[in-house]
């Protein structure tokens, strides 16, 4: 049976289903006011106020869980600390998978799958690995009604079992490099949980590679963090900062850990993806060796790298607003929602015929489009609903639009009349070019907005006092650092901030550590994090 470890509930039973709660009238009023023109416009079209969320500025954490519920991304599972990813949330994860799968295969990796259960003795073979993961392990001690001879670990990560198999498969330099990836679930017994960000079980991809030389392994680790960086910028519109982790923050069992750090809407940092140069730590522990071209027996050099469903949480917290989710078009499951509008029965058929034509035009152009022609909800409700889901573009078609052979186009990222365009022609080439142009504009706008927010909340510091001031204001602190691990832990203890990374992009010139005054080769970024 699984070891019984108590986990603080994601959901307090006494409060009922938090994700489905209705907010108090005062909070509803505050939320309605904060939504501004977008809400007012929807109200005038007959929308109701179902699915309201807490304003971001009032309570960021409540806003985050409200958006997850209202946008139908996930719900809490029956086991404390778990979540059920709903179809719309999973579709975002699929968009991440679709991009990364192509990149993994382009760079020579193959998908495969390893068992979820790992012998505990495997975990013990690499000392720093077992020390790092021990508090988070879920163990199976009974199977088939009998106590197991050896307890099993429910996969927290796969370096150990991968090495066990690599040892069987690798014998010669001709077997190298060996480069694989798996899409899997992972179990880590987190004590502080947050949907998508930290849960007892989550989904991820984990890549594992073996190489003949340290240089090849280092090149691979850097290549994969670059893949993640490009994905974050170009598809998720999240301006991450790539860099190297400090020794204190390095993955248990790795020589070096590379990371992409993202600034969330509350200015906390999110480690959005990592790539590890494992050196020969695991190959020595497991005896993963090969005969080189000179007939010498050597241990392989390895890497591992991963992105998980926490990236979905990062997208929510980077781009969302008081109206709900806001998705970059390149990863949005629905890029365009079409809402037909009619009042009289004799208007319906002409409007739906025009809607069907527009839908076909956009689909044929490769645009992900959906029509909501349900008569059970008002157009205003639909406007609010798809705003909450973060659909980048809305098209409205009513009787007047049919007569004029045009449509009304609204941008999710620009509220109210400012983001609305009237009289956009239904002529196929004009319409397609217009919608594709708007989707590109939204993608670029979201990225630029996030860059501006990030850069305006990073403070360059030259003393420990300046760092404390920056962190107390909720900002990131960037400054020269060459102090000890003990000093790094002191900063964490006194400010709750950690070194997020040593950025790859470093300023030129001589530097002095702001903690010790000694020469420093690099600047580090400190921040509070998830």
Automatic annotation (TrEMBL):
Single annotated GO MF: proline-tRNA ligase activity
Source taxon at top rank: Eukaryota
Limits of the Aminoacyl-transfer RNA synthetases class-II family profile domain: 80-328
Catalytic activity entry: tRNA(Pro) + L-proline + ATP = L-prolyl-tRNA(Pro) + AMP + diphosphate
Its EC number(s): 6.1.1.15
Keywords from the named record: Aminoacyl-tRNA synthetase, ATP-binding, Ligase, Nucleotide-binding
GO BP annotations, alphabetical order: prolyl-tRNA aminoacylation
CDD domains xref list: ProRS_anticodon_zinc (cd00862), ProRS_core_arch_euk (cd00778)
Signal peptide: none
Alphabetized Pfam families for the sequence: HGTP_anticodon, ProRS-C_1, tRNA-synt_2b
Protein name: proline--tRNA ligase
Organism name: Sorghum bicolor
